[in-house]
């Protein structure tokens, strides 16, 4: 089970696919957005993702309670949804220069569309795949529209029940999607490790028979690296040049050095998986000689008896295994033996 997106293959036999999510951290500056692309590429990210919408395609410009973020929200409290999306959106005319810069630097570039007009626009830019955001995973008409492009789809599963994920998966497959990736996601900002529940990843893979990864809103790299050990083949993290610069998602976004660390440590985690194996690996063969084994620790004459004083389990490992010491104690040696001689059966 693997999926190819441009020149990269996503699957368990390949290192994790790391996606840097720009979101609104460009702070409404194209120059900053392009600088973020450069920094993500320098950090080793394999892809950069945008979000494609306008405030008008997301919500209504109203100040009714329904359209105001709860004051308890630590990042966006008391803002209207419209004003929030007005701050966060990426102007559509920026997409092409951002995508072009990604391609120049060898990164895959794609986006999350939030309505059908965004899909049509992204198709005009020939994106290689699509991401469905967690808040849109119940928007089956949008999933159907994206699936009809025939391109790979990545669906975040934040807040979704098993039944809702099943509906999204079936809609995508029935509408023409052959390459599907689900991302375990917790839709809180930031998320905490305690409510991330990455043990869901292998269960999700078995249940829906597709590639599974992690859309991670926790701080740091620990959760994402751990997810690789559980089978995550793609990791998405929000990205910023500096949290101190502010930005709509800056508080839970990675800085360039952290993204670089994630790329390296996720790869190491993947490399460490290997296969189920016991006994010495080829690389351990040379180390076996430094195990403990039985050695004569005093000069002995023929006929002397082996005792706890002249027979000990020490390093290196050229003698008999320490498990034989009880068998050997009290036995006579059949020849003169020098101190430091490894014990073998022919000495008894």
UniProtKB/TrEMBL annotation:
Domain AFP-like: 293-348
SUPFAM superfamilies: AFP III-like domain, Aldolase
Pfam families to which the protein is assigned, alphabetical: NeuB, SAF
Swiss-Prot/TrEMBL GO biological process terms: carbohydrate biosynthetic process
InterPro entries associated with the record: AFP_Neu5c_C_sf, Aldolase_TIM, PseI-like, PseI/NeuA/B-like_N, Pseudaminic_synth_PseI, SAF, SAF_AFP_Neu5Ac, SAF_PseI/NeuA/NeuB
Molecular-function GO terms, alphabetical: N-acylneuraminate-9-phosphate synthase activity
Protein name: Pseudaminic acid synthase
Gene source species: Tenuibacillus multivorans
């Amino acid at each position: 089970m693997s999926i190819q997106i441009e020149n990269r293959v996503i699957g368990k036999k390949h290192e994790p696919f790391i996606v840097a999510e720009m979101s609104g951290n460009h702070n409404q500056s194209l120059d900053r957005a392009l600088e973020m692309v450069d920094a993500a590429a320098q950090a080793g990210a394999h892809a950069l993702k945008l979000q494609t919408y306008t405030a008008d395609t997301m919500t209504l410009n109203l100040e009714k309670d329904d359209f105001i973020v709860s004051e308890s929200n630590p990042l966006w409290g008391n803002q209207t949804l419209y004003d929030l999306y007005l701050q966060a959106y990426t102007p559509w005319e920026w997409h092409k220069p951002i995508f072009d810069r990604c391609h120049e630097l060898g990164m895959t570039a794609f986006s999350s569309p939030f309505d059908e007009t965004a899909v049509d626009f992204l198709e005009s830019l020939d994106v290689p795949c699509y991401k469905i955001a967690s808040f849109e995973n119940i928007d089956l008409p949008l999933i159907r529209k994206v699936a009809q492009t025939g391109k790979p789809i990545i669906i975040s599963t934040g807040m979704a029940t098993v039944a809702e994920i099943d509906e999204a998966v079936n809609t995508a497959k029935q509408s023409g999607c052959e390459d599907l990736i689900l991302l375990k996601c917790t839709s809180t900002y930031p998320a905490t490790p305690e409510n991330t529940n990455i043990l869901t990843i292998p269960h999700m893979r078995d249940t829906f028979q597709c590639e599974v990864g992690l859309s991670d809103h926790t701080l740091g790299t620990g959760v994402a690296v751990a997810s690789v050990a559980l089978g995550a083949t793609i990791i998405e993290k929000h990205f910023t040049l500096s949290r101190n610069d502010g930005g709509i998602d800056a508080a839970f976004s990675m800085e360039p050095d952290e993204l670089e660390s994630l790329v390296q440590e996720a790869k190491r985690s993947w490399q460490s998986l290997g296969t189920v194996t016991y006994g010495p690996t080829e690389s351990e063969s040379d180390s076996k000689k430094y195990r403990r084994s039985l050695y004569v620790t005093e000069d002995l004459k023929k006929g002397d008896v082996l005792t706890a004083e002249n027979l000990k389990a020490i390093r290196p490992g050229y003698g008999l295994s320490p498990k034989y010491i009880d068998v050997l104690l009290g036995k006579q040696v059949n020849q003169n033996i020098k101190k430091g001689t490894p014990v073998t059966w022919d000495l008894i």
